[in-house]
């Protein structure tokens, strides 16, 4: 067994499905320690041990954080937690200041877009687009996406298009400063974001779908993203 010092430490934001993300990160040949980063536990300082941070899905981002408090009416009333928003925005501030690789999934993309000064569509159907939420039977919806051929995401996935799962009712609207859209659904919903100059700073990959629970875990839209994030975390560990 590898020593504690040799473990790759990945911080995972707490959410109702935390165990799914934790298991996904831990499933592989490398010995990985997952650290739960939770506003309820008040353990912000735990991020200082982490070589990479995964921002997970979950609640709607409170629209006051992107200066649209009037959008609160479009949010799910029982699915807004400002304390979590604030905690994870502070995590992003730390990762930016300390060049810690970040993978953002679903809400993680939305929160990161807000962090960089962007805004959100609070309810996709109300903005005149098809629903991107789960199906009536509770299963994830699946749809196609197109990927920007000049993007870091394209280099990671090595495909120009594909099918991904979908379960969200909010999405990025105005794109944050320093970010660029790298994947779109057929109806124009933002499916991925990254830095405008991806090579200029630490790894930042933001995807709207859920790679941790794709039906095909060998799909490039899940395994390649996971591996790229872990490779960036390993590089960060080496540099520390």
From TrEMBL:
PROSITE patterns: GATASE_TYPE_1
InterPro entries per the UniProt record, alphabetical: Class_I_gatase-like, Peptidase_C26, PuuD-like
GO MF term set: hydrolase activity, acting on carbon-nitrogen (but not peptide) bonds, in linear amides; transferase activity
UniProt keyword annotations, A-Z: Glutamine amidotransferase, Transferase
GO cellular component: cytosol
SUPFAM superfamilies attached to this UniProt entry: Class I glutamine amidotransferase-like (SSF52317)
Ribosomal protein recorded as keyword: no
Superkingdom of origin: Bacteria
Protein name: Putative glutamine amidotransferase
Organism encoding this protein: Solitalea koreensis
């Amino acid at each position: 067994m590898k020593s504690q010092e040799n473990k790759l430490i990945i911080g995972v934001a707490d959410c109702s499905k935390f165990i799914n993300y934790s298991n996904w990160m831990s499933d592989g040949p490398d010995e990985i320690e997952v650290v739960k980063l939770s506003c309820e536990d008040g353990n912000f300082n735990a991020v200082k041990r982490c070589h990479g941070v995964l921002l997970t899905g979950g609640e709607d981002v409170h629209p006051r954080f992107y200066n649209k408090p009037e959008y609160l009416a479009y949010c799910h009333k029982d699915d807004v937690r400002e304390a979590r928003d604030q905690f994870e925005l502070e995590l992003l501030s730390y990762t930016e200041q300390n060049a810690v690789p970040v993978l953002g999934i679903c809400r993680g993309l939305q929160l990161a877009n807000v962090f960089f000064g962007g805004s959100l569509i609070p309810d996709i159907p109300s903005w005149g687009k098809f629903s991107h939420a789960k199906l009536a039977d509770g299963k994830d919806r699946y749809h196609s996406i197109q990927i920007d051929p000049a993007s870091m995401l394209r280099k990671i996935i090595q495909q120009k298009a594909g099918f991904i799962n979908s379960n969200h009712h909010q999405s990025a609207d105005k794109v944050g400063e320093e970010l660029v859209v790298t994947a779109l659904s057929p109806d124009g919903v933002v499916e991925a974001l990254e830095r405008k100059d991806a090579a200029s700073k630490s790894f930042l990959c933001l995807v709207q779908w859920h790679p941790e629970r794709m039906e095909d875990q060998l799909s490039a839209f899940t395994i390649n993203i996971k591996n790229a994030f872990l490779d960036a975390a390993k590089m960060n560990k080496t540099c520390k």
